[in-house]
């Protein structure tokens, strides 16, 4: 309980702006009031941080703690792909991490004529993201610059601030933006440090046997509560039976809970926000060790033992 609470506090601090270590993925920020995908809001490492020792600690804490406890810190799928050595998908991973940039790039890639390009530049100009063309002062245009994940304007090529986007180079512009964002998602220096931290706890060769999703589930647990699995991993203290009326009422009440309410119950009962996606006892004998919070224990009320 106390150790899980400590991990929860540390991971919340890692996600805070005070450390500037992790960023909320732009797609998650856009949908911060919605459940996005299966895992809700996701974080990833902040690019252009040179203090890699912090990321080594992240590997030791977040990933290493997942060996015996569920980590409450949920990272983007590009994080897990890079961690296990799987290449990123320039469409799927960009869309998941930064839906705004993905849509922006697609608009330029799908333009069919110069009239559409001019209309798009006018739309961007209305959002204060474009400037006037040097050849036509009243005609808005984009330059070869784009905002990084940290909000800084980056030149996509040498002297990019002075190169306007036109019909001839609009595909080059879109490809350069995609390339910038994919480099930021990979952050090789940061991920090398995370792997070093992980390697101080478990052999890195194990990563080759796991898919990114398997690694994420082993570390962060399930994004939903499997009530039947929880029920099968519940022990009743002396004097209690699963068929007792108040026990049946208890499970009936939980069955009416939403997933959000079930997660709150797990936080209240076990002091963790998620439950492991499996338990060693599932494939072992009766003496096989459990992973917290399994087995959940239900005891008689105080002063009513054995009644």
TrEMBL record:
One of its GO terms (molecular function) is ligase activity. Keywords: Ligase, Transferase, Ubl conjugation pathway. One of its GO terms (biological process) is glucose homeostasis. SUPFAM superfamilies: Hect, E3 ligase catalytic domain (SSF56204). It comes from the Eukaryota. Residues 79-277 form the HECT domain. InterPro entries: HECT_dom, Hect_E3_ubiquitin_ligase, HECTD4. Gene3D superfamilies: Hect, E3 ligase catalytic domain, Hect, E3 ligase catalytic domains. PANTHER family: E3 UBIQUITIN-PROTEIN LIGASE HECTD4-RELATED (PTHR46435:SF1). This is HECD4 ligase. It comes from Leiothrix lutea. The gene is Hectd4_1.
């Amino acid at each position: 309980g106390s150790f899980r609470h400590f991990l929860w506090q540390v991971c919340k601090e890692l996600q805070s702006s005070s450390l500037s270590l992790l960023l909320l993925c732009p797609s998650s920020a856009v949908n911060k009031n919605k459940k996005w995908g299966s895992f809700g809001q996701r974080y990833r490492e902040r690019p252009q941080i040179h203090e890699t020792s912090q990321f080594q600690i992240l590997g030791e804490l977040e990933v290493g703690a997942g060996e015996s406890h569920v980590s409450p810190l949920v990272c983007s799928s590009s994080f897990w792909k890079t961690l296990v050595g799987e290449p990123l998908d320039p469409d799927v991973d960009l869309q998941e991490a930064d839906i705004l940039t993905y849509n922006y790039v697609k608009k330029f890639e799908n333009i069919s004529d110069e009239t559409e390009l001019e209309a798009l530049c006018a739309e961007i100009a209305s959002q204060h993201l474009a400037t006037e063309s040097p050849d036509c002062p009243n005609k808005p245009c984009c330059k070869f610059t784009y905002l990084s994940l940290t909000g800084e304007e980056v030149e996509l090529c040498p002297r990019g601030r002075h190169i306007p986007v036109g019909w001839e180079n609009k595909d080059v512009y879109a490809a350069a933006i995609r390339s910038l964002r994919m480099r930021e998602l990979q952050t090789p220096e940061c991920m090398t440090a995370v792997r070093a931290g992980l390697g101080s706890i478990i052999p890195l060769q194990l990563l080759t046997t796991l898919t990114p999703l398997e690694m994420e589930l082993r570390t962060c647990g399930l994004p939903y509560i499997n009530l039947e699995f929880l029920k099968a991993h519940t022990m009743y203290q002396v004097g209690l039976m699963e068929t007792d009326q108040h026990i049946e009422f208890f499970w009936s009440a939980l069955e009416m809970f939403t997933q959000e309410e079930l997660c709150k119950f797990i936080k209240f009962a076990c002091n963790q926000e998620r439950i492991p996606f499996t338990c060693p006892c599932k494939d072992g004998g009766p003496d096989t060790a459990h992973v917290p919070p399994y087995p959940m224990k239900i005891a008689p009320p105080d002063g009513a033992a054995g009644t």
